[in-house]
Amino acid sequence: MTELSGLQIFKYLPAAKKLEHTNCKQCGFPTCMAFALKLAKHQTNVDKCPYIPKELEEIYFQSSKQPQKTVEILGVKVGGENVLYRHEKTFINKTALAIVIDMAKPDWKEKFERVTNFEITRVNEKLKIDFIITKNGNIEGAISYEDFQNLPLIKITDENFENTSKELVKIRRKAILEKDENYSDPVYVYFRHTEDLKSLCAKASYYLCKYANMLVFEDFDENLITSLMTLRQNIFTDPQKPLQVESKIYEFNNPDENSLIFMTTNFALTFFAVANELESLSVPSYLIVIPAEGMSVLTAWSAEKFTAKIVADTLKKFDFANKVKNKKIIIPGLLAHMKDELQEEVPDFEIVIGTVDAFAIGDFVKNLNLDNTKSKNL
Ligand code: SF4
Question: With contact defined as beta carbons under 8 Å apart, do 174 and 197 qualify?
Fold first, then answer.
């Protein structure tokens, strides 16, 4: 049973049934509706209203039960999911990726080093293997295979793709939709060894999407793990919270007071696209990042999160006018229509229209004549 909404709860309360105690305030809220909305968010308790029917108490208890348990392994939380689809709310704990190290094998030390040294950075996030499971011995900071097997987890061995994928869907549906306690433990898929890398990658990716809480590999392949981490980062990003970077002035190639000045939003993907281009240029530059709630350039503009006033406030906050002699700010080409408005709001600077796409920044800079940018519209 999915969680009750405020409206569903309200239907059981005196106000909906036009009974004697309608909006009596004994629960501490001005109306039955206000109480129902708070109860739906678990911000109050059922026993605050003395007139709640037994039937609602039971339904509320059932619907509030956590569908999937959370298990913590060496500080990594696994499971605890409440929904089938990310767009319903969000996923809670990303699919953990674990590697088995068999210490009876002669090359275990080399494998251990490869696993512990493996790290990728993507969209400003450092990604590493979540934990190591050891067989035939123990390593500090790892979990032994015996201890791992004693955890309340459902194990599926990857023998047959069709069966495994069906089993994963069945378990998640039973846990979330029926709140069936027989299926409420987090689930992991155990891959015995690396076969054909392409099919392994395809299968592991599918299980990551639907619905493994953890993937455990006996073999370690950097390319496979890199692909899975990239996919995982996309799936487990909260859709209601866009990836964003800090709003500040970033520096590339040791800029000074005469260096180029670019501007963009704090949407992580936009930022990294621009930052990568600026970093690879041999010219020093600044990048002013506007606090646009993680929205991309045009979305931020249409939502009034990238306005002339916000730009002026950002420059003021960092006292940027006093730090540079070059007073030309290159704005994203998509905001060309804002040029006059911006110019008026930040009279200390000259607004120059830059490129629509980040990849064109290199050519833009090559063609840029800083004494002649006033009329340039590239
Ligand atoms: Fe409504 Fe119950 Fe609150 Fe009274 S105590 S206002 S009946 S919810």
Answer: no
Q: What is the pLDDT at residue 179?
A: 87
Rounded Cα–Cα distance for residues 21 and 18 (Å): 8
| Ligand 1 site, residue 9, Cβ cutoff 6 A | no
Residue to substitute in 18, 33, 49 for testing ligand 1 pocket (most ligand atoms within 8 angstroms of CB): 49
Q: Are residues 276 and 337 in the same domain?
A: yes
pLDDT for position 1 = 61
For residue 49, what are the domain limits?
6-64
Kindly report the protein residue whose alpha carbon is nearest to atom 6 of ligand 1.
23
Q: CA-CA distances (angstroms) from residue 314 to 6, 17, 208, 241, 322?
A: 41, 54, 40, 22, 13
pLDDT tens, residue by residue, 333-353: 999 999 999 999 999 999 999
The answer to the question of residue 378 being in a domain is no
Q: Of the candidates 203, 235, 267, which is a domain's last residue?
A: 235
Hey, whose CA ends up nearest to atom 4 of ligand 1? Answer: 24
First CA to last CA distance, the chain: 57
CA dihedral angle for residue 50, residue 56, residue 62, residue 64, rounded to 10 degrees: -60
Please report, for the domain that includes residue 15, its CATH number. Answer: 1.10.15.40
Per-residue pLDDT, 378: 35
Please tell me whether residues 47 and 74 are part of one structural domain. Answer: no
pLDDT for 372 equals 40
Q: Is the same domain home to 224 and 265? A: no
- Together in a domain, 192 and 264: no
Q: Assess if residue 243 is contained within a domain.
A: no
Whether 56 is in the pocket of ligand 1, judged by its Cβ within 6 Å, is no
Q: Give pLDDT < 70 ranges for the chain.
A: 1-2, 194, 369-378
Q: Is 12 in the pocket of ligand 1 (CB under 6 A)?
A: no
- Answer yes or no: do 201 and 74 share one domain: yes
Question: What is the number of structural domains in the chain?
Answer: 3
| pTM as predicted | 0.70
- Whose tokens are 């969000």? That residue is 90
pLDDT of residue 241: 74
Q: What is the pLDDT of residues 208-250, one digit of tens each?
A: 999 999 999 999 999 999 999 999 998 988 777 778 889 999 9
Per-residue confidence (pLDDT) for residue 333, from 0 to 100: 96
Give the position, in ligand 1's atom list, of the atom nearest the Cα of 21.
7
C-beta of 362 in contact with ligand 1 (< 6 A): no
Return d(Cα 62, Cα 47) in angstroms, integer: 15
Q: Are residues 221 and 77 in the same domain?
A: yes
Q: Is 6 in the pocket of ligand 1 (CB under 6 A)?
A: no
